[in-house]
């Protein structure tokens, strides 16, 4: 393992703060490192492995497609791409789908679509503490200065307002504004959940001012919150949503979904992707959708999320450093008044993988297939970790 880590340091860019372990195998809610140690993975590739590691449905779909067609360009129609688009449309309020390879690419596509639709209007209002990607445009959309500082000047056309502040949003709209882009639950910003009234008011402001209402569902989509898409929790009617992460279950895929009148603004040559909607990844994604777009499965996610938050609230009563438990479904945050990374490191040593964000928030995004027994094990390890700090 040490040789591999040293080899990685020699040959790979140093732009990730990596734990010096090599993960070599995954199954269900667990991963193993190169030394044979087993970990309960409650990060799931950062909300990617929604059906766990190497789910049978996904593996079989990949194997079958790999023997038929790995790739062909979007100069032709692609069967699994068409079937996946149909599945996404039938399970949402949208009419058309554009496929790409990641969440940042999906948000880039949404930004370009909004700008063309704006017909001269190009400014997009986003939220403070938001995260929309690491490309230059999506970095500009991201409302966190720590991501901007070394890559200035920012791409023009993005204005940031406080998440939850309706009046500030109203006062920021100008003659060049074409859209509002937000996450209904801010993931990287700290698992921040607004109230439904705020989100409904944002939607109304968009309609009243002829602005597109765009929701970044890269992290919240694909069942993560106990609904197919998080906008359903708040009875919202967005014009565009972006997807990635759980859409592929481990395969690189992104997408935007839009209403017909918006989608039709794009014409041949306006936007594209060499690998977007690739036969292999869309075959895998279709298998993921078949499982996730099931009402019984979604209710299980809701129930497990409530159970998990209840257990975390029990720990909150026991440890004064735990200040707040928040989230929806199996997208859960836990605010603490100590360094989150200290708890993350202790849990890792004890065989639990979790994530620290925004300095003092623990993030839990386990596989949606995680069992009650596995949630109990996570709580047991967290209890031990908090008892040691």
TrEMBL record:
<dbReference type="GO" id="GO:0030170">
    <property type="term" value="F:pyridoxal phosphate binding"/>
</dbReference>
<comment type="pathway">
    <text>Amino-acid biosynthesis; L-arginine biosynthesis; N(2)-acetyl-L-ornithine from L-glutamate: step 4/4.</text>
</comment>
<dbReference type="InterPro" id="IPR015421">
    <property type="entry name" value="PyrdxlP-dep_Trfase_major"/>
</dbReference>
<keyword id="KW-0055">Arginine biosynthesis</keyword>
<keyword id="KW-0028">Amino-acid biosynthesis</keyword>
<dbReference type="GO" id="GO:0005737">
    <property type="term" value="C:cytoplasm"/>
</dbReference>
<feature type="binding site">
    <location>
        <position position="274"/>
    </location>
    <ligand>
        <name>pyridoxal 5'-phosphate</name>
    </ligand>
</feature>
<dbReference type="InterPro" id="IPR005814">
    <property type="entry name" value="Aminotrans_3"/>
</dbReference>
<feature type="binding site">
    <location>
        <position position="134"/>
    </location>
    <ligand>
        <name>N(2)-acetyl-L-ornithine</name>
    </ligand>
</feature>
<keyword id="KW-0963">Cytoplasm</keyword>
<dbReference type="InterPro" id="IPR015422">
    <property type="entry name" value="PyrdxlP-dep_Trfase_small"/>
</dbReference>
<comment type="similarity">
    <text>Belongs to the class-III pyridoxal-phosphate-dependent aminotransferase family. ArgD subfamily.</text>
</comment>
<keyword id="KW-0808">Transferase</keyword>
<dbReference type="InterPro" id="IPR050103">
    <property type="entry name" value="Class-III_PLP-dep_AT"/>
</dbReference>
<keyword id="KW-0663">Pyridoxal phosphate</keyword>
<dbReference type="GO" id="GO:0003992">
    <property type="term" value="F:N2-acetyl-L-ornithine:2-oxoglutarate 5-aminotransferase activity"/>
</dbReference>
<dbReference type="GO" id="GO:0006526">
    <property type="term" value="P:L-arginine biosynthetic process"/>
</dbReference>
<feature type="binding site">
    <location>
        <begin position="103"/>
        <end position="104"/>
    </location>
    <ligand>
        <name>pyridoxal 5'-phosphate</name>
    </ligand>
</feature>
<dbReference type="InterPro" id="IPR004636">
    <property type="entry name" value="AcOrn/SuccOrn_fam"/>
</dbReference>
<feature type="binding site">
    <location>
        <begin position="216"/>
        <end position="219"/>
    </location>
    <ligand>
        <name>pyridoxal 5'-phosphate</name>
    </ligand>
</feature>
<feature type="modified residue" description="N6-(pyridoxal phosphate)lysine">
    <location>
        <position position="245"/>
    </location>
</feature>
<keyword id="KW-0032">Aminotransferase</keyword>
<comment type="subunit">
    <text>Homodimer.</text>
</comment>
<dbReference type="GO" id="GO:0042802">
    <property type="term" value="F:identical protein binding"/>
</dbReference>
<feature type="binding site">
    <location>
        <position position="273"/>
    </location>
    <ligand>
        <name>N(2)-acetyl-L-ornithine</name>
    </ligand>
</feature>
<protein>
    <recommendedName>
        <fullName>Acetylornithine aminotransferase</fullName>
        <ecNumber>2.6.1.11</ecNumber>
    </recommendedName>
</protein>
<dbReference type="InterPro" id="IPR015424">
    <property type="entry name" value="PyrdxlP-dep_Trfase"/>
</dbReference>
<feature type="binding site">
    <location>
        <position position="131"/>
    </location>
    <ligand>
        <name>pyridoxal 5'-phosphate</name>
    </ligand>
</feature>
<dbReference type="Pfam" id="PF00202">
    <property type="entry name" value="Aminotran_3"/>
</dbReference>
<dbReference type="InterPro" id="IPR049704">
    <property type="entry name" value="Aminotrans_3_PPA_site"/>
</dbReference>
